[in-house]
Amino acid sequence: MTSTLKAPGARQGKAAPKDRLAGTGTLFRLGLRRERHALPAWLLANAALLGGTAAAYGAAFTDAEARAAAIDRSESALLRALNGAPAGDGIGSLAVTDTFTATTTLASLMAVAMVLRQTRQNDESGRAELLASTAVGRHAPLLAALLLGVAACAALVPVLALALALGGLPVAGSVAAAAAIAATGLVFAAVATMTAQLWPSTTASTWDAILVIFLVFLPRAIGDALGGVPAGGLGVSRGWISWISPVTWAQEIRPFHGDRWVLLVPLVALSVPIAAQGFRLSTKRDPGSSVIDTGKGPAAASPSLRGPWSLGRRLYRTAMKAWVAGSILGFLCAGLLGAGDDASAVAMADLVAIVAVCHAAHVLAGLRSEETTGGLAMTLAGRAGRGTWLLARLGHGAAGLAAVVLAAGLGASLGTGLRSGDLGGGLAETLAVSLVQTTAALAFAGLAVAAFGALPRLFLPLLWAGPVATALLAVAASEPDAGPVAGLTAVAAILAALVLGALGTVAFGRRDVGG
Known about the structure:
- This is ABC transporter permease.
- By secondary structure, the protein is mostly helical.
- The chain contains 21 helices and no strands.
- The protein is globular, with a radius of gyration of 24 Å.
């Protein structure tokens, strides 16, 4: 005869809520340590963009006439679609309006990166299963990741407010602007908790979150472009579709012109049910798996994939198609909305430069990801050498960059032609300006490759600072009458890209893989 003796206090059935969150604090601190380089880079990049623009506007728009000329730009539907219209005529309103799309996008991408690096990347690398085997609660990893995203957005408030206040702007308006940007990022930190559960890879989860960011920004852009501008150019009578977007709620806080703090409440409130849905989805899968099962590929690779060049083509082909299609459609709409004046031409050229650098950053980020996840080590275990692997990746990235920029130029030219009735009139000029913008992306890529070879741990923070620097410097290289200056700048950028790329390749050959 045998009997079973239960231990005192043994738990039966479901774990207590406290047990499901065990270890959250430890994982949160671990996340802060992992992001100790990346998080400051995100914060400083956003502060440089916003604070630099405010300082530049303070020096440029010194009188009411200059500010009135800047406000008149809101009559362009393209510029309204990009940034909206300023609510006031002060330097603060102008600077925040003209950078709002860029700064909120940066804040959103930062929040998404913070969450996905602690969730889906852990699933992909196997760390999630290791954590699940320890005394860590079921929801602790996701909660710690969400708290890290919230902390990153909260850190934006003092950093951005200080950047604006140092430019001589009122403190209350500076804090309101920073809070509006941070609250927008908070919404997408919650979105990332959902995308992390849906897809089996970090790349797919990131692109899903980026798609949501685009779809959230789109109604605001359409509503503002179709809305009317009252006399004086201040504000815009937004269409109803604008109010679907949380970005509109953030913009309607109107920093430096009313400071409507109450609109922060719906932004924070929206984040709660989205994050709750992410936690619900996390219970529908096991650690290391995903809600959406994409299936397994064939056991053996085809002959067309047996080499770094063919493998790189396979890895980048889907993303390249998405970039090309998005560039054509996006710049087609921009061309249709443009006013045909110099301001619209400059804005279009700046957009091409930013898109080109963002594409280069996306491709180059795959270098470090492949190295840290072990894919590079497996590739180098075969016949491929380091130089061949790196050149293959950079070659596909350069081809994709050219395709994206040409697609952007074609879309912009087609949109402008449809609006003006002259389809082929400005094609050559538009493509020429687009190709000049490509050289800025090449120079940035060369610098990034040098960092990848010499400073691999700082590679990603430096990489994503590129779009910010491009947004600050693009105007200088995109004036319609730049002429020979633009040509010399392009030649210098290509030479810089070649030299920096060569230095990065040499440095990569002399360091440890995974360092």
